[in-house]
Amino acid sequence: MVHDVNITVLQITVVVSLQLWTATLLHDAGWLKMLAIAYFFGSFLNHNLFLAIHELSHNLAFSTPVYNRCLGIFANLPVGVPMSVTFQKYHLEHHRFQGVDGIDMDIPSRAETLLVTNVVAKSIWVMLQLFFYAFRPLFIKPKPPGYWEFINFSIQIALDAAVVYFWGWRSLAYLILSTFVGGGMHPMAGHFISEHYVFKPEQETYSYYGPLNFLTWHVGYHNEHHDFPRIPGSKLHKVKDIAPEYYDGLESYKSWSQVIYMYLMDRTVGPFSRMKRKVPGTAKKSE
Fold it and tell me: Which of 50, 134, 206, 264 is the most exposed place for a label (fewest CB within 10 A)?
């Protein structure tokens, strides 16, 4: 099952165009103005594109995988840094080997669990979430780049260079800043924590049924997504409607901002609050 291709391509094209256009308008903006627009506007656009890339990593736009990969590289452009192809390589392993230590790169490293233990450290960790997601695989499970990663890198660097050449460094800074703040202490970024951080013993994955699903390709339907990763996000609500007996009894959220607050203030929760498996089929809470 895939999305309506025309609608998907149109949605991504509109968001990419709007964000790049906004970057050109801010070529001589002050840093405070740029930060405000990045946090309250650009962050929502770039996070939307990040989750469009997530959908495309599951080949949910086209039936031909290479077309999804090309659209993912296009969606990557306003993000500022090349990540679409590499994300797919690691994310599909997260689905196949969820929680398996050393394979699932969604699991925080041992160093993170030891260092991030109080509200101050957790606040810094939340603000820098994207850096941990980006660099964790490089230290724990590095993979040699492939042909498509070089294409992703080349196209992204060419776009970044063009932005700097025609509009200046501030326009590029706006794009990268939008990515950074949108992945940190931001309502949209609450899904990073809500999806798999264990707040209720014995429940590993949590869904979010709130309004931000409409901006995030319905990634909040996360139990449903892991059960049926080949169903587009826009149709996952039908899974819950068809089989409520499997989902209504599970803990879920209605606010990602509340999830971030709970994560920061609850001393019993941190990067260590994940289910880890030594081998597929056996699980334990990370220590």
Answer: 134
Provide the residue range defining the domain that includes 52.
Answer: 5-271
| Rounded Cα gap, residues 225 and 92, in angstroms | 12
Tally of structural domains, the chain: 1
For the chain, strand residue ranges (E) read: 207-208, 252-253, 275-276, 284-285
Q: Which two tokens stand for residue 225?
A: 């997504």
Dihedral angle sign, alpha carbons of residues 87, 89, 95, 99: negative
pTM (2 decimals)?
0.93
Residue 284 lies in a domain: no
Q: What share of the chain is helix, strand, coil (3-state, %, to 5)?
A: 65, 5, 35
Q: Counting beta carbons within 10 angstroms of the beta carbon of residue 282, is it exposed (0 to 12), middle (13 to 18) or buried (19 or more)? A: exposed
Residue 283 in any domain: the answer is no
- Return the half-sphere exposure (C-beta side, CA atoms, 13 A cut-off) of residue 63: 1
**Positions in the chain whose pLDDT score sits under 50:** 286-287
